[in-house]
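User: structure tokens for this one?
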Amino acid sequence: MRILKYLYTWTLSWADSKYSAFGLFFVAFIESSFFPIPPDVLLIPLILGRLDNWFKLCVICSVGSVAGAVFGYLIGYLAMESVGNYIIELLRLESAKEQFFLWYERYGVLIVLIGAFTPIPFKVITILSGAVGLNILVFILYSFVGRAGRFFLIGVMLRIFGAKIKELIEKYFDLLSILFVLLLIGGFIALKFL
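Assistant:
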């Protein structure tokens, strides 16, 4: 847990860096198309490091995530057989692929909104939305609503309760780290078995 604590402290120090916005955009972008760690991991400490900057950071994270979602969509649309399947296999989400099609039949485009807002690995939804040829404008709209809703909910909560949350994180960092990892694993499990 010491390494996680170090990474958290190190990320907080990024808040005043001129590269923090780029780093957040980059992580949000790659997470929506192939990277397994959600951008919340970077967004939360950056906001806690500069509470007055919460709105800007939420916009950057949302735009980066939707841009990455479009990239993921294009992977599915243009290169599903080669690149798309490789990413899904690499992340061990083959069963999630079948589950997506079942959810897509049941919920339609709402699956994009649900995936954008929840801990379900969004990259699977972005890639497979391209593979099924979902209308790109509808995909972008639902992705933006879900991602912005998620990141702005986090931002508003941190803006309102930031000092208390920062204190809580620092006091219970080990426990919260374990809970976060369990949530992340739970998202992958939900895709495999639901």
